[in-house]
Specification:
The protein is mainly α. It folds into 2 domains: 118 residues, Tetratricopeptide repeat domain (Serine Threonine Protein Phosphatase 5, Tetratricopeptide repeat, Alpha Horseshoe); 61 residues, Serine Threonine Protein Phosphatase 5, Tetratricopeptide repeat (Alpha Horseshoe), CATH 1.25.40. Helices cover 65% and strands 2% of the residues. It contains 11 helices and 2 strands. It has a two-stranded antiparallel ribbon with strand order 1-2. 47% of the residues are buried.
Length: 210
């Protein structure tokens, strides 16, 4: 089986502010899949201004921008500081991005990273459920448990979480924890696209061309 690393996008709702053609209330999935560089730049500037005033959501958003290099150069160390500050303020998105940075960039901190994922999941963030499920399925740090991982991914999908739909599509396309089923894969990819996670169009294109 081919090992795959799947990166998911964090969704952070913020106060309604019009920036170019993007409403900050739109999901982060739409920002990252459909957004242009000017949109990324506007999001970065908005988050920077809000973070200076102590806004915990804005710190988390700015950490995302810095971590992924959206609207600004990548700066993982600065993203880590902002994410921790947001998490320390009790922000569920701060816990998520702090956990993500620790997990992927600072491997020796994976136990701490998972604890932050768990906190975020308990606060109702579907992306955190998906992250924990992905860790179980990949067997990276936690013992591999495909059944438990799929349960968590499905729980996030039950909340109409686009990236969870996408992962289920990949599971059925490649036979990860379930038998290969192209029809099921197509169903989940289509649901992801309809939920605004347009990265899944690549999965639909692969299935169409296969």
């Amino acid at each position: 089986m081919v090992n795959r690393i799947i990166i998911f996008i964090i969704i952070i709702p913020l106060p309604s502010i019009k920036m170019t053609n993007f409403n900050i209330e739109d999901s982060w999935s739409k920002l990252f899949t459909n957004g242009t560089q000017p949109v990324h730049q506007a999001a970065f500037e908005f988050a920077s201004n809000g973070a200076q005033s102590g806004c915990d959501n804005c710190k988390a958003l700015l950490a995302v921008c810095l971590y992924y290099g959206c609207g600004c150069p990548k700066n993982v160390d600065e993203a880590l500081i902002l994410a921790k500050e947001s998490a320390d303020q009790g922000n569920k998105y701060g816990h998520l991005i702090y956990g993500r940075i620790l997990y992927w960039k600072y491997g020796e901190s994976r136990a701490t990273a998972i604890q932050h994922y768990i906190i975020s999941a308990k606060m109702g963030l579907n992306e955190a459920l998906l992250s924990i499920g992905s860790i179980y399925m990949g067997g990276i740090y936690l013992p591999m448990d495909k059944k438990r991982g799929l349960e968590l991914v499905m729980k996030a999908a039950d909340q109409k979480h686009g990236p969870a739909y996408d992962q289920l599509g990949k599971c059925y396309e490649f036979g990860d924890g379930v038998p290969v089923n192209k029809s099921e894969a197509r169903k989940w990819y289509q649901l992801a696209v309809e939920a605004g996670f347009t990265f899944s169009q690549k999965g639909l294109d692969r299935l169409r061309d296969s």
